[in-house]
Amino acid sequence: MTKKNKNRSQSLRIPRIILLICGFLAFISTKLVTLFAAKLFTTPIKHKLPKRELEMNSKSIQNLIRIPAIHKSVMVYEYGNSNRKILLVHGWSGRGTQLFKIADALLAKGYSTISFDAPAHGKSPGSTTIMVDFIAAIIEIDQQYGPFEAVIGHSLGGMAVLNALKKGLKVNKAIVIGSGDIVQDILDDFIAKLELKPNIATELKLHFEKKYNEKMDDFSAYKAAAMLSIPVLVLHDTTDDEVPVKAGIHIHKHLKNGQLVLTDGLGHRKILGDTTVINKVISFLKEA
Question: Which residue ranges does the record assign to the AB hydrolase-1 domain (predicted)?
Fold first, then answer.
C-alpha cells in the first residue's frame, strides 16, 4: 500500500494576500466578495510548458479555431495521422499536451489524437473561463475534427466530457480520469479554501446561474453519467487530494455501462503517466 503524500499540491495553496482580501471584502459586502470569488474561480493559472510535453507540442499540427457558441478561440493539437481519432480533454489549469503519455501510447496502437487548450489555458487567448466553455469547445471540435472513436477527459475535463456526451457528442467509448462530480461540492470546497463562510458558496452558485441562465447543479457529472449508455471507464486515485475518490465512485454508481478502476498513491496528476493506467486505457478501448 502506497502511503498518501502529505505534501499537498501547490495548486491547493491560496496565497495569504488573497485570503486577506477575501476576508476584507466579506466584512464589507457579500456581493463584493462573491464577485471576487467568481473572478478567482474562473481564472486558471497558465503554467509554462514542461519539457516532458515538448515532443508532443513540436510534432503536433496546431490551429487556433473559433468557438462561435462562446465567442472564444482555442488552440487545437492534431497528433498523428490515423483516421482512428481520440479526443483528449485536459483539466483546470492544464494544457492540450498534458495527456502526452496517453497520446503517445495511443499513437503506438494506431490511433491519432486531437486535443486543445481550453479558453484561457495554454496558447488559447483570454484570462477567464468556466466548464461551460470546455463543453462548447468539445462540441465544436467534434464538428470540425470528428468523428471520434472515444474521448478521454481529466479532472474538470472529465466533467466536461460527460456533459458534452449528455448534450449529444457521439463516441463509442469514454474515459474519465480524476473527474470532479457534484458542482455544489466543488463550490463548497473552493469557498472553504478561501476561508469564507459557507453561505458564499450558495451566493457564488446563484451568481453563475444568473450569468449563464442555467442551473449549475445540472452540470454535476453523476447526472450526466446517468443519461449515458455507452461504455465509460472511470479511473481515480484513492490519494487524490484535489478531487476526492468519492467523486469517481459516485459517477460510476450512476453509469449504466461503467467500469471503475481505483489506483493508490498516484494522486491527481501522476495517474496520467502511470504505465498500468495507460495499459488499462488501451485495453478498454480495444474491448469489443
Answer: 86-181
